[in-house]
């Protein structure tokens, strides 16, 4: 069996099903847990519930529905979120207070509780620890995604696996994405919260597809502890790598996207500065459309960097472009234009476009991911509910 993600982690079992637009996944794993949530003021009912339940620092399972976000649904929506945990608790034999819940789909619609009850009853008996199980769970939570997203990072003595969904309504500050991460490392709640927060900041919060921040974004991480204690720094690095792999897949699968866009900013005074510049460039519609048209209009990158609110000397920056391979084509060197536009255009012809921008102001760096902006994005979102 060739595992891709969560079921490679000892102590994790899963399954999922999809009926048209509506899917449901159950993931069973007991252990220490932590969560990171959307910063949108309009928080969906499951987010409101999980922000309370995660304070206990323990989870035994997670139930996820797709097709309806259960967002902006008031008291009824909150009660429905509680009801879903009760459904999952009934079929799994667990306390509802130890069940994580997440939803994704259309905002401003109420859940079809009879359907979710039916799906819980269908999924629970099939939960197992196989590659097929993790694939079924990842597919069940998809909405406009075109492929299921998996990541697995293995270290000497422990592993970190994750699945996620995300394609549109993606912007920093958790951006619509759901991520479910698992490790067999033994990690206490405080350490897990700190590691997840940092990993999220350096991965999911650096993905921009369209500039919209969802009402439902959530990342949950559960540590089963079956591998025993591990080096804290090594664990944090593995968790960050797992999140980064998933984040790049979200960017690659941006709604209507034809190209993955990556920007690495180096030479910043501090990481926050590099992050601000990278995020500003990656979310620029002018940069995105130039990448789509394979137009080497690199000046848009420098212009976007200049409005990020970070101080640097424009006459000292350097800029390169590549297709993700080892060969980087210089565009600007220490403020001097040296662009070979033919070579730059050729570098934009593949499925990945990478800009590297050196601010020449320090030693900090950051990378952000996004995608091009195409007519297909408008088509998808112009008819999302119809």
UniProtKB/TrEMBL annotation:
Residues the record lists as binding substrate: 143, 165, 176, 255, 381, 386
Recorded metabolic or biological pathway in which this protein acts: Amino-acid biosynthesis; L-arginine biosynthesis; L-ornithine and N-acetyl-L-glutamate from L-glutamate and N(2)-acetyl-L-ornithine (cyclic): step 1/1
Biological process, per Gene Ontology: L-arginine biosynthetic process; ornithine biosynthetic process
Chemical reaction(s) catalysed: N(2)-acetyl-L-ornithine + L-glutamate = N-acetyl-L-glutamate + L-ornithine
GO molecular function, one term: L-glutamate N-acetyltransferase activity
Active site: 176 (nucleophile)
This protein's record includes keyword Mitochondrion: no
Record keyword Cell membrane present: no
Annotated site location: Cleavage: 175-176
Family membership: Belongs to the ArgJ family.
UniProt protein name: Glutamate N-acetyltransferase
Lineage: Archaea, Methanobacteriati, Methanobacteriota, Stenosarchaea group, Methanomicrobia
